[in-house]
Structures are given as C-alpha cells and as structure tokens.
Amino acid sequence: MSSTFDTVANIISETCDIPRDTIKPESHAINDLGIDSLDFLDIAFAIDKAFGIKMPLEQWTQEVNDGTASTEQYFQLNNLCSRIDELVAAKSA
Amino acid sequence: MRLEYFQLIDRIVELDLAGETIRAQARVPETSTILEGHFPGYPLMPGVLLIESMAQTSGWLLIGLTQFTRMPFFAAVKEAKLRSFVTPGQELMLTAKLLHQGSGYAVTKAEIRVNEKLVANAEITFRLVEFPNAEFRASIDRMASVIEFPTAARAHG
Predict the structure, then answer these.
(1) Candidate list B27, B38, B97, B137, residue with the active-site label
(2) Longest dimension (CA), chain A
C-alpha cells in the first residue's frame, strides 16, 4: 500500500504540478487536490501504465452517478490505492 | 477533405484491429474559404486542422476497436508538432496507433506524412462515451460508408 501510494502520489504531483508533500493518503483527489476529470484521465493513463492494469473508471463513475458509491470510495487516495492493489492482485492471480 | 463540413479525411486505406493501427488518406482542397483566410495570398492548411485530421483518423481507429459502441471525443493533445507547411492540393497519408485503451478513455499516437516525409505528429487522448442518441449514431454510420470504413471491421452494437 505504501509503495502504491508513493507511486500514485508521484504521478499526481508530476501530472498536475501539485507539490508532492501536500498529497496525503487521506487526500481526496477531487475535493482536496482539485483534480478535474481531464487531469484524472492523464493520471489514469499513468497509473494504468505503471501498474499494468485497467482501472474501471466507467464503472466507478457510473456507480457514483447512480448513488451506489461515494466519491471517497474511489477518489480518496488511500481507497484508490486499495483499489489499485486489488486490481494488481487480480491480474496476477 | 471537406473542410467546411469538418470532414478531414477522405478514405480509410487500412484498418488493422489486431495491430491496433489505421491508415487514412486525405487531399487538401485547392480552394476553400478557410484557405482564403489562412492566409490571403499564401494559403496554408491550418495547423489546428492538421491536428483535427489526426484526431479523426485516431477516432475511426477507436470506433473500430470499440465496434461502434463508443464515440471518441477529443479530450487532450500532447506533443503536437507541425513540422512543415501543408499546402492546397497536397495528398496526406495519416496513420494512428493505439497507445492505451483504458476504461472510458484512450490514447493514440498519430502522424501525417506527405510524400513519405513526416509533416505532423501528436499524442491524443479521447474520452470514450456511449453514443448520445440514435441520430448521432446514424450520422457516424453514414460517414463510415463515405470514408470506406472496412465492412469486415464493422459490427453494429
């Protein structure tokens, strides 16, 4: 988890020009870091490449729009990193 | 090309879904109101339209890869380079390759060559969205026929 967070935080910092030390595990990508949907595409591209996964952004967005999931579940960084770890584990299983 | 109708490619030459690549061609018209304005006495194909032509080429690749179930909307362009002037009457060979297809988005690398010389290239990001309505989807079907989208690569979703 910690190495996943470091990788994700570095990607966010470089992609969005956000100081690395302001990015915390409890940071919400949208509400706290102000990342918009276009920047998140760049971040998703970098995360997909770095971890060799395909984050199901369409599904997550649909769940948030339908009210069956909160944005915190997917866009708070510690939760996002957990989702990434699950996707990596599922890939190698 | 029909610049005024934003049709920037004339024909798909090859669509390789397994290799995730596409080749298309387009001829810059000799006359157009756009070329009259860009520039009077010195007509040049506008660089933004060269970028759009690479986006359209990439878009048809993505439409093929998603089997007409998603519409690619231009979201971002990176590393766009306009290397040479493109003038009326020139024949463009456009190619695009998928770099990554994520969930709800895709990234391509595209280029334009004239007489095999690289004149423009870019990395382009698209949002992939379900077609917003049947009319739009039907217009894409019609355009696919106009530009000779390979029948074998079509599957109506």
Answers:
(1) B38
(2) 35
CA distance B65 to chain A (A): 16
Output the pTM of the full model: 0.91
As beta bridge partners, residue B15 has: B22
Burial zone of B82 (CB within 10 Å; 0-12 exposed, 13-18 middle, 19+ buried): middle
Give the number of A-B residue pairs with CB atoms closer than 8 Å. Answer: 35
Whole-angstrom distance, CA of residue A25 vs CA of residue A6: 9
Runs of H (alpha helix) within B17-108: 33-37, 47-65
* Cβ–Cβ under 8 Å, residues A55 and A44: yes
What is the per-residue pLDDT across B77-129, written as a single tens digit (0 to 9) for each? 998 999 999 999 999 999 999 999 999 999 999 999 999 999 999 999 999 99
Q: Which residue of A has its CA nearest to B102?
A: A54
Say whether residue B77 is in contact with chain A using an 8 A CB cutoff: no
Q: In residues, how long is chain A?
A: 93
Q: Contact B106/B100 with Cβ under 8 angstroms?
A: yes
d(CA B50, nearest CA chain A) in Å: 22
ipTM confidence score:
0.84
Nearest to B59 by CA among B29, B28, B98: B98
Identify whether B38 is a catalytic site residue. Answer: yes
